[in-house]
Write a structure and sequence with these properties.
This protein has one domain: Rhodopsin 7-helix transmembrane proteins (Rhopdopsin 7-helix transmembrane proteins, Up-down Bundle), CATH 1.20.1070. The protein has helices spanning about 1-10, 45-75, 80-110, 115-150, 155-160, 160-185, 205-210, 215-250, 255-285, 290-315, 320-334; strands at about 15, 20, 35, 115, 195. Helix 2 (about 45-75) runs antiparallel to helix 3 (about 80-110), helix 2 packs parallel to helix 10 and helix 3 runs antiparallel to helix 4. The radius of gyration is 23 Å and the shape is globular. The strands form two sheets. A three-stranded mixed sheet has the order 4-3-5. It is mainly α and about 325 residues long. Pfam families: 7tm_4.
């Protein structure tokens, strides 16, 4: 009897594991905190180097995207649907990197990598919401290029200001609603296993793998959602650019072809960066994943892509270059 009583006491005792709190495994949710492993296994010198590198990239991404938001919303010469969408894309990128990178920078400096359950849940929802909205917006940007190149005479009528506002609103609304669904699927099971997340932010597939019971249903539902969210816009993008390519090849002017290719190449480069990393993270079997594979792709779509987007668009677009020069000139005069 004494052994049975002592066993019950042990199973109901609250234990501590590097800041995590647990309760009786038979009574539901047990984990109240997560530990983001991130780069804590790296040496101090490596962490210092990563901090300087990521801080520089984050600052550059914020500055470049902020500049694009400013000039696309204030420069009257950029009053077209393409730059309207580009301004909102930069705003999404700012939201995206701010959700994940500042926390990673703090964890590279301090030794305490603990995040509360609520903080992890909130971060994951914001990543879902903004990421899904960006997927949809990239598809709308491809459709905008298709209308501009293949139906130039009807472009102003088809892509009116009201239509553009509705498309951007639809991207945000779908992101908000889809984020709720993905959040529910990620946290539907209680957590009573290891609370160490092998990444620098709360990424859904890794968090789900820590939940009690069978996580396969949640992973399958997220995989099915990724097919809709990633592949459906991808189909629209492929169809749009296939028709654009057919229209370009039918033109006799080589200069017109070059200008059109230059306009579309920027968007295609951004699409390839973003979709490749997102598909690897959410559409690959978890058996093929690991910390060494997850972190590079997570870095690609959380900081590298948001940083590259404004650089790609500004360097390949004469109007953007001119608008940036005018904005900097006005700032220097002020």
């Amino acid at each position: 009897m004494e052994k049975v009583k002592s066993l019950d006491i042990v199973t109901s005792t609250v234990t501590k594991n590097q800041g995590s709190k647990t309760v009786d495994l038979r009574n539901g949710s047990t984990v109240t905190e997560f530990i983001l492993v991130g780069f804590e296994q790296s040496s101090s010198s490596t962490q210092a180097l990563l901090f300087v590198l990521f801080l520089a990239l984050y600052s550059l991404a914020m500055a470049m995207n902020g500049l694009i938001i400013f000039i696309t919303w204030t420069d009257p010469r950029l009053n077209s649907p393409m730059y309207f969408f580009l301004g909102h894309l930069s705003f999404l990128d700012v939201c995206f990197i701010t959700t994940t990178i500042p926390q990673m920078l703090i964890h590279l400096v301090v030794k305490n990598h603990i995040v509360s359950f609520v903080s992890c849940l909130t971060q994951m929802y914001l990543v879902f919401c903004v990421g899904v909205a960006e997927c949809i917006l990239l598809a709308f940007m491809a459709y905008d290029r298709y209308v501009a190149i293949c139906h130039p005479l009807s472009y102003a009528q088809i892509m009116s200001r009201q239509v553009c506002v509705k498309l951007v609103s639809a991207a945000w609304l779908f992101g908000l609603i889809n984020g709720i669904f993905l959040e529910y699927m990620s946290f539907r099971n209680p957590f009573c296993r290891d609370n160490h997340i092998e990444n620098f932010f709360c990424e859904a597939p890794i968090v789900i793998a820590l939940s009690c019971g069978d996580p396969q249903f949640s992973l399958r539902m997220i995989f099915a959602d990724a097919i809709v969210v990633l592949l459906s816009p991808m189909v629209l993008i492929v169809i749009s650019y296939a028709r654009i390519l057919a229209s370009i090849l039918g033109r006799a002017s080589s200069s017109g072809r070059g200008k059109t290719f230059s306009t579309c190449a920027s968007h295609l480069t951004v699409v390839i960066f973003f979709y490749t990393s997102a598909m690897f993270s959410y559409m690959n079997p978890r058996s093929t994943h690991g910390p060494d594979k997850d972190k590079p792709f997570s870095l690609l779509y959380t900081i590298i892509t948001p940083m590259c987007n404004p650089i790609i668009y500004s360097f390949r677009n004469k109007e953007m270059k001119g608008a940036m020069v005018r904005a900097l000139w006005r700032t220097s005069l002020a």
